[in-house]
Amino acid sequence: MEKVANDPAGSVIDLPGASVPAGEVVLPLDIPEGLDADGLRTLAEHLAAALRREDEVHRSLLSTVVAGGSQADLCAALAGLLDMPVMITTTDGRVIADAGEPEALAAAYATSAFDPTGRFLVEHELVGERTGEGEWVRRATVRIVGGSGVEGRIVAFGGSRVLSRNDIHLLERASTVAALAITREQAVTAVESKYRAEFLRDALAGRVGSGLDAIAHADSLGWTLAPRMVVVVAETDEDDAITERTAEEVRGLQQRFARAWVRAVGARDRRAPVMGFSQEVVTLLAITPETATEQVMGVVADLARVVRGDGGGGRRSFSTGVSRPVTDLASLPTAYAEALRAAAVGRQKHGSGAITHFDELGIYRLLSLVPDSAELRQFVTDALGDLATDDNPESEGLRQTLTVLIDTNLNVAEASRILFFHYNTLRYRIVKLERMLGPFTTDPQLRLTLALALKVLEMRGLAQSRRSGTSE
């Protein structure tokens, strides 16, 4: 057998019986039985041509990145080379860039590989090639691995076409180039984020100087400070101070959480100020004087839905608070405090994942400021007696009856309708409640005490700090 050396990189195809010069790189090759020298030469030339194409493709993709191209440019180049839709996603499946023919791209997004928000379901889509039933199911996924570990994924959809080994190998080569692009963008973003974070912290603390200077500074950072805004705070429900996660894991999760908000807000308004801090993400959302509170909450709910997805891919549960509108920078610190309070109280009142406007808090605003949780519990016990706990099976039902009576201003007919009770049944319950609590139907001060106690009980543990486990 003879030695064939057509590899442009200087490698040698190892043929049976051939000697190998010292220092040469040998590519092992499975030789079909009965293949003669001409067949081997043809096979070697085919392999050499594949290697040349792969090298050309790699150089092309690399030049795209080196020339300053973004991940979107890299994705477009790769889609053109493969002639199929291609996406680059984050580690939890948010699509950073996509490219391909519009119809083919839409068909790919319509597959079961994506959730309704357009997130690639990384928790279900394994790395490698996948084939399933129906049309547009042939797809391949490769990891993008950078210096800090897995940075994302590249996904290619072949539709009804079978992806070849060359296609898969090309995706793997492209992933190394994508890692370079992501690392470069992260380095640039880290510098930009440092200055943006400092500016937003100063703005929320009231230290940005005159309005014109602050607006000009924000503009230089790529942000627009609108004449009328609301502050939106998205705060993670998980307490990182008592977590079993490592500091690196917590940092990675928070960075992912912040990037999700930045992308969600950027899709709506790319110049809206948004920045992640230690355990929260703060957004200054521009509104008009005609924008109603319901519209604001609708926009915030849409943003939260995009960030939350279906909860997969390592996403964190979070609660969101929204401030009252502000029309000057001097009011930002107050609005920030309102949004924080709305997020905290909303979580206490409705549980994890709540979205709460400051104006919805009502009396809860005051209750949340009471520093002594032990005193709150004692107040509830003194006011409600046996109804303060669920030791008695009737307690919950009687508390509900009392709440509806107070909310309807003791309108027995209306309360009966709401509770689906017969009028006489409700009268009997009122008598029973007055024996337990006192003459609340005739004593307005007692009614006020009972109403406050019921609100405190509804927000049980509100005065307990979620962060430290001590009073706020």
From TrEMBL:
Residues 212-345 form the CdaR GGDEF-like domain. It holds the Pfam family GGDEF_2. Residues 398-456 form the PucR C-terminal helix-turn-helix domain. Belongs to the CdaR family. This is PucR family transcriptional regulator. It comes from Nostocoides veronense.
